[in-house]
Amino acid sequence: MTGGAGFLGSHLCEQLLSQGHSVLCVDNYFTGSRKNIEHLLGNPNFEAMRHDVTFPLYVEVDEIYNLACPASPVHYQFDPVQTTKTSVIGAINMLGLAKRVRAKVFQASTSEVYGDPEVHPQPEEYWGRVNPIGFRSCYDEGKRCAETLFFDYRRQHNMPIKVVRIFNTYGPRMHPNDGRVVSNLIMQALSGEDVTLYGDGNQTRSFCYVDDLIRGFIALMGTEDAVTGPINIGNPGEFTIRQLAELVLELTGSSSKLVYRPLPPDDPRQRRPDITKAKAVLGWEPTVQLRDGVERTIQYFRNQL
Ligand code: NAD
Ligand code: UDP
Ligand code: UDP
Fold first, then answer.
1. Is 180 helix (H, G, I), strand (E, B) or coil?
2. Which of ligand 3's atoms lies nearest the C-alpha of 136?
3. Of 2, 208, 201, which Cα lies nearest the Cα of 97?
4. Which helix (H) or strand (E) holds 60?
5. Which pLDDT score, from 0 to 100, does residue 225 have?
6. Ligand 1: centre distance to CA 93 (Å)
7. Strand-strand pairing, 204-206 and 238-240
């Protein structure tokens, strides 16, 4: 697994180990941390390796989950050129590795491939509306190009590929300072700082709890070769950012104030997955309600603080 020391990666490592797999976790610790995988280091089936996926990797594996890539706007815009390299060259290297060792290869793509969508909710057939030259483009276009590479390797080399488009996911081990909305609002509420709403707070997102998402990943990896995706995995419950902020204030019992800040450029207005395919092909749907998931996440950040 690449990006195995990150938020999603660490949960996936944990789940695969608990199913009896051996896991090689490859990460350059740009946004991930050893702390996220510390509890796995004593497991003889687990191995951690510091490596940047923009460089070739020669190892022997049966399955590859390619998750390496900073995911929060603050982190992926910090070094945008490296972000594109990670997605594009990282995909080429993982596809090259998969081709050599005949491994199944899984790509963590994103709802950002739909950009600021004019189709709502977003089905997999929608081609998206993405700015190619904006602040988010290093991430969005990098991920789009990675998808292109996955499907071209499939067509040229007949390789087993699995592409998942992940919608906003949250839960324990999110980076506390990565600027993503769930971690930001909870950290602000717990430390009594103002809770920041960008724009008018009426933009929407659909939030999936991490455990649900990981179950979807493993289900997709287990499908027959004919199933390639792309397939949306996310929770179709759609909330405005203001509703999320009010929920966080209620569940933390915080007396922080809501304050308004400028909307970042190209910030999508609304986003909700159409998960018809995931239901039909994987028999998957999310089970954790936003209130429960946010409560568990608050507990995690409380312990961290
Ligand atoms: P994260 O930042 O916690 O994890 C990314 C991991 O990749 C980190 O451990 C980081 O150190 C590592 N990494 C970054 N560049 C690397 C490189 N060049 N070489 C090796 N490792 C590198 O973010 P996350 O939320 O766990 O996201 C994991 C994947 O899922 C990413 O590919 C992201 O784009 C995708 N995704 C996540 C979400 C979400 O809501 N969490 C939504 C859509 C897509
Ligand atoms: N690669 C890798 N590990 C491997 C095999 C390949 O990292 O086990 C990388 C290598 O850098 C190569 C890239 O994957 O350039 C693409 O491999 P492919 O075989 O598709 O093309 P090549 O560039 O070797 O013709
Ligand atoms: N957002 C916000 N306050 C914050 C952080 C984010 O209002 O402190 C907004 C942000 O502008 C966006 C939404 O919350 O509209 C989700 O942001 P995030 O960075 O989590 O993810 P993405 O925009 O990539 O979906």
1. coil
2. 24
3. 2
4. none
5. 97
6. 16
7. antiparallel
User: What is the residue with the minimal CA distance to atom 8 of ligand 2?
Assistant: 97
Position 266 scores a pLDDT of 85
Domains of the chain and CATH, by start? 7-175+207-236+272-287 (3.40.50.720)
Q: Which spans in the chain are helix H?
A: 7-18, 73-76, 80-101, 137-157, 181-190, 210-221, 241-252, 276-277, 290-304
Token couple for 243: 């509703």
Residue pair 162/277 in contact (Cβ under 8 Å)? The answer is: no
Bond preceding residue 80 cis, omega within 30 of 0: no
pLDDT band, residue 178 (cuts 50/70/90): confident
- Catalytic-residue membership of 58: no
106-139 pLDDT, tens digit per residue, is 999 999 999 999 999 999 999 999 999 999 999 9
Task: Give residue-wise pLDDT tens across range 219-238.
Answer: 999 999 999 999 999 999 99
Among 65, 139, 170, 209, which one carries the catalytic annotation? 139
Mean pLDDT of 210-220: 98
pLDDT of residue 270: 92
Question: What gap in Å lies between CA 37 and CA 276, rounded to an integer?
Answer: 33
Indicate the SS3 state at residue 25.
strand
Measure 116 CA to ligand 3 centroid, in angstroms.
Answer: 13
Residues 6 or more apart whose CB falls under 8 angstroms from that of 142 comprise 69, 83, 84, 86, 87, 88
**pTM for the complete prediction?**
0.97
